[in-house]
Amino acid sequence: MAQRIDLPRSNQEEYLRLHRAVWPEVEATLTHAGIRNYSIFLVDEHLFAYFEVDDATSLSEASAAIAQDPKTRQWWTLTDPLQRRLEGTPDGEQWLTLKEIWHLD
């Protein structure tokens, strides 16, 4: 999976500070929900995320499990306001999921 969102320069220092020490509970929730190999990249004011979802789990199932975790929701109260959602992002979602057009195994 690949996703994108914007991160205004004025918010980058705080966002990077938070991500230098992601809460262990948040990381554990992601892992338990089936998320693997998760990376976030910054280019100018653009964040790109890449992650894999276990074969036995769909993205919607993983997202629902993650959203139920109180510590993750608390984390989002810190990170979400720093980001700028992209036009076309579905209601109820923070990041825009990108459509895969090619994949090399």
What are the defining features of this structure?
105 residues, alpha+beta, Alpha-Beta Plaits, four-stranded antiparallel β-sheet, 4 strands
Report the CATH C-level class: Alpha Beta
Class by helix and strand content? alpha+beta
How much helix, percentage-wise, in residues? 25-40%
Shape: globular
Quaternary organisation of the protein chains? single chain
Order of helices and strands: EHHEEHHE
Largest sheet: 4 strands, antiparallel
**CATH superfamily annotation:** Dimeric alpha+beta barrel
CATH architecture: 2-Layer Sandwich
Q: How many whole angstroms does the radius of gyration measure?
A: 14 Å
Low-confidence stretches: none
Q: What is the average per-residue confidence, as pLDDT, rounded to a whole number?
A: 97
Strand segment count:
4
Q: How much beta, percentage-wise?
A: 15-25%
Q: Could you give the order of strands across the largest sheet?
A: 2-3-1-4
Number of helical segments with 4 or more residues: 4
Count of discrete structural domains:
1
Kindly report the CATH topology: Alpha-Beta Plaits
Distance between the termini: 14 Å
